[in-house]
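lol ok so funny story. i was supposed to be doing the assay writeup but got distracted and ended up predicting the structure for this chain instead. priorities right. anyway since i did it might as well share w the group, maybe its usefull for someone
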Amino acid sequence: LPFLPLFKASSWLQFHIYAGLFSLALFLVHIGWNFSGGILEGILAAVFFVVFLSGLFGLYISRRMPAKLTRSGESLVYERIPFHRQRMIEEIEKLVQRAEMETLSSTLADFYHSRMELYIRSAAPKIPPFVAPDRSSAVRLRGELREHQRYLSGEERELADELGEWLETKDNLDNQESGQRLLKLWLFVHIPATYSLLILSVVHGALALLYRST
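and the output, tada:
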């Protein structure tokens, strides 16, 4: 309820984190460290651990991923990344065509179509790396492009340098898209599981009170 003056969002976040961590100890005490039980209790325990573990995962990536994405390159709005990707492809195609027309040579264009085009048009990886940005493809292609410059004229080398800069752009787009996508998607596990846990907890409590009264 952001329209109510009920403390800062950061304060609620810290409370949520500490309460979530404390819930594990409370859960274990509640069941007496005994995981045996009926079907409902088993389902309830499984859903609780889904909520708890997804919360830990979300805490980890929300603290680590933004800094890594900032170090990997320019921060981008997630919804605008497809636009930036399409614009990148169009600009690279124009660059390759300009290289052919201005230098009257297809050497750089042949290298692009045979070695780079598949990577440039490829989608971002589904899961981003956690330790460091995965720059293996971009670094490898930049190395190949530098090696290929021995076969290029002076004018072609300048255009090849521009092409190498677009490799950096592609690398940043991939890291931004895969990282931001993960930051959004984990909530699609955590939030539905949380609501399921709340519903099952009410049913569990109602049944416990019913059987105690009988």
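Helices lie at 9-30, 39-72, 81-103, 107-121, 136-148, 154-185, 187-213. The two ends are 40 Å apart (CA to CA).
back to the writeup now i swear
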